[in-house]
Amino acid sequence: MSLKIRRQCDMLILWLIVLTIVSGCGGRRITTAVEDQAFRPGPSPVPVDEVTKVVPPTRVEESEVRLAERSSAPEPPAIPAPPPAEPPAELSDVYFDFDQYAIRGDARSALKRNADLLKSQPNQKLVIEGHCDERGTSAYNLVLGERRAQAAKQYLQDLGLALSQVQITSYGKERPFCTEHSEACWQSNRRTHFRQP
Predict the structure, then answer these.
(1) 102: which of 7, 148, 155, 181 is 20 to 30 A away, CA to CA?
(2) Rg of the chain over CA atoms, in angstroms?
(3) Is 181 helix (H, G, I), strand (E, B) or coil?
(4) Residue 25 falls within a domain, yes or no?
(5) 3-state DSSP call for residue 106?
């Protein structure tokens, strides 16, 4: 009986350690030296024979080689530049009250404009990002950001936007728009942001 209790205690301690590590690392990005380095391929090494001595060409030889290259290679046809693409219309962000995910009255007109724009482009996909201010835990703000994104998605669907056009995600407080510690800044971070995937 005591062996069974000891195993249960060991498992409980192990779970507490895992929970402590996970909660302590939540929302933090761990980078390694490998991630900080970018691979830039260079020219392949050419084996050099120690006996062979390379003599650089003279200026006359260089100009003769260049002239021969120009005369033998036909010029590629000129490729016309593509026409300038129309910039996509701007989708409006929607803002929320502190610790709330209900759609405010001022947000309804912005959502209506977003829905009208997206209905005119039925093949256009949309990602709704839920964001929060810096107050509260990371886990709480991730859930609150998801609820804000879900509320905006539901409102767009009620306006007739196709379900297949919309995806949601939550960043909680991890990607703030403003980094100051003031009510005005916090208000600008309590939002849903609309972007193309």
Answers:
(1) 181
(2) 30
(3) coil
(4) no
(5) helix
pLDDT in tens, 117-134: 888 887 888 899 999 988
User: Is residue 139 in a domain?
Assistant: yes
Structure pTM?
0.54
pLDDT tens-digit readout, 17-72: 766 676 665 555 555 444 444 545 555 555 545 545 555 555 555 555 555 555 55
Round to whole Å and give the CA distance between 192 and 89. Answer: 17
Contacts of 92 (CB under 8 A, 6+ apart): 110, 113, 114, 194
Residue 66 one-letter amino acid: R
* Bridge partners for 79 per DSSP: none
Helical ranges in the chain per DSSP H: 2-25, 33-36, 59-72, 105-119, 138-158, 183-189
Type of residue at 36: D
Q: How many domains does the chain have?
A: 1
From 148, 153, 170, 171, select the one nearest 114 (Cα to Cα).
Answer: 153
Which range marks the domain in which residue 106 is found? 94-195
Answer yes or no: is 150 within a domain. Answer: yes
